[in-house]
# Entry
Amino acid sequence: MEVLRRDARHVVRRALRMARDWKQIVRKREERDDEKLEKEIVYIRSEVRSTVEANRNLTSYSQIREVIQNSNDRVDLILHYRIPYPRYHYVYDETRELQHVDGSNCMELEGHILDIPVSHSRT
# Structure
């Protein structure tokens, strides 16, 4: 369990370090206004805090290992894309086509209705 504790501390420190250096990380490639950067920093810190609190009472080795791996993957994605918010994934099999009252198509994804055209082809 000591290895898991070390790995968990490592990923938390890595995420908080990323939040601390977020302005320099983003400005290497693009220019964003300071207000937006500050909101992103606050978001990163709150996500780290909420993730730690949500998983504080885990006791299973496999569950803890999975959370650590997912957290490391998320930090890697944030650093690569320079977007701290979760990325949407395309879901083909779980989507359903709905009809609006006016007859236009839309998609329902995990209970959220997105007003975008539904394509039937995957080309």
Remarks:
- The mean pLDDT is 81.
- Residues 88-123 form one domain.
- The first strand starts at residue 96 and ends at 99.
- Helices lie at 2-20, 22-27, 34-54, 61-81.
